[in-house]
């Protein structure tokens, strides 16, 4: 798949997810009749690549650029509403992502599970799977009433080596095997590994989920999209003169392969995650979001087929904090060339590159 249309491909995949919901839902969704459902990209009998090509052929260059931010602009002439890629679901649907809006509709609250490091201490893969499934059911219900998106930036599967890191509680801990297992189970559950509520391979009917199905039997897509973060060797917030925006993780090749990469590899290969988030830090002198070798390896060696998003403003930090490039525009260019596709908080940098 060529670089210039990959972001629109994934946007179409999530459009595909959105048009299978009940007709009774009030919020606007793509491909609604009577004016916009005749486009080929709305034709569910066509293959996803064919529909993606159709959509891209209809977009102007400016409209394509507008899809590269987390807050993707709508395209009224095609009946495509705005979309916010950034929603959070670390251990329940959270308010710190702009894609989630409690109280703007019928949903005012959601279930909060224990911090991830606490759940991980149970060493119970079925529990992790069921937590992911339960969070996903609530998230999909919120999407169906226009209060959340389809793309959630969780789980955090960084290795928690230093107790001074302020975000260690978000992770499964220091053990790569535990972090890998957690990533697999949470992502499988969250992305719809059960398909049916009240059925499936984990016996959910015995755990109080009821009998209603979230997805129909004919649905072949995801319930939602999970995103494994922060890729890679990221475990510092601020310490002394170092911050998460500028620190350089000096890691041997063996430590990278034995410690830091296994959770992400498992997240992709066994969990089938549809998103990776590259981190702020440098890895051996090169910004993580500009490490073409690492990002490309996820695709060529691990079989990753999803989209790669940067952490918020991580592309801007390549120039502003790390002085790795001569200009902000160069930072955007090297990140895109490395394989990163969504630029949260930095759409103006993409515009500048266009100009």
Automatic annotation (TrEMBL):
GO molecular function: alpha-L-arabinofuranosidase activity; xylan 1,4-beta-xylosidase activity
Protein species of origin: Hevea brasiliensis
Membrane-spanning ranges: none
Keyword terms, alphabetized: Hydrolase, Signal
Signal peptide: 1-24
One GO term (biological process): arabinan catabolic process
PANTHER family: BETA-D-XYLOSIDASE 6-RELATED, SUGAR HYDROLASE-RELATED
InterPro entries the record matches: BXL, GH, Glyco_hydro_3_N, Glyco_hydro_3_N_sf
Protein name, as recorded: Glycoside hydrolase family 3 N-terminal domain-containing protein
This protein's record includes keyword Acyltransferase: no
Recorded superkingdom: Eukaryota
Residue ranges occupied by any Glycoside hydrolase family 3 N-terminal domain in the UniProt entry: 103-342
């Amino acid at each position: 798949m060529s670089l210039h249309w990959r972001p629109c491909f994934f946007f179409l995949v999530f459009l595909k997810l959105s048009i299978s919901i009940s007709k009774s839902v009030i919020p606007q969704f793509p491909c609604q009749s009577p004016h916009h459902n005749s486009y080929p990209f709305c034709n569910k009998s066509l293959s996803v690549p064919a529909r993606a090509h159709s959509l891209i052929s209809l977009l102007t260059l400016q409209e394509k650029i507008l899809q590269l931010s987390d807050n993707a602009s709508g395209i009224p002439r095609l009946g495509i509403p705005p979309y916010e890629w950034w929603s959070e679901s670390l251990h329940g649907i959270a308010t710190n992502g702009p894609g989630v809006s409690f109280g703007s509709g019928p949903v005012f609250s959601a279930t909060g599970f224990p911090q991830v490091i606490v759940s991980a201490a149970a060493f119970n893969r079925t529990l992790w799977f069921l937590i992911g499934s339960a969070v996903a059911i609530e998230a999909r219900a919120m999407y169906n009433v226009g209060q959340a998106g389809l793309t959630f930036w969780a789980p955090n599967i960084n290795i928690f080596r230093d107790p001074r890191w302020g975000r260690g509680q978000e992770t499964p801990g220091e053990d790569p095997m535990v972090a890998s297992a957690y990533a697999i189970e949470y992502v499988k559950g969250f992305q719809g590994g059960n398909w049916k509520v009240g059925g499936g391979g984990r016996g959910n009917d015995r755990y109080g989920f009821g009998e209603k199905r979230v997805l129909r039997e004919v649905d072949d897509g995801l319930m939602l999209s999970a995103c494994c973060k922060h890729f890679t060797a990221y475990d510092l917030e601020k310490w002394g003169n170092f911050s998460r925006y500028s620190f350089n993780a000096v890691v041997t090749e063996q430590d990278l392969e034995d410690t830091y990469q296994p959770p992400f590899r498992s997240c992709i290969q066994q969990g089938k995650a549809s998103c990776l988030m590259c981190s702020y830090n440098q890895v051996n002198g090169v910004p993580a979001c500009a490490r073409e070798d690492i990002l490309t390896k996820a695709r060529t060696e691990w079989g990753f087929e999803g989209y790669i998003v940067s952490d918020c403003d991580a592309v801007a930090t390549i120039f502003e904090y790390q002085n790795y490039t001569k200009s902000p525009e160069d930072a955007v260019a090297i990140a895109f060339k490395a394989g990163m596709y969504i630029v949260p908080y930095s759409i103006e940098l993409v515009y500048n590159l266009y100009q």
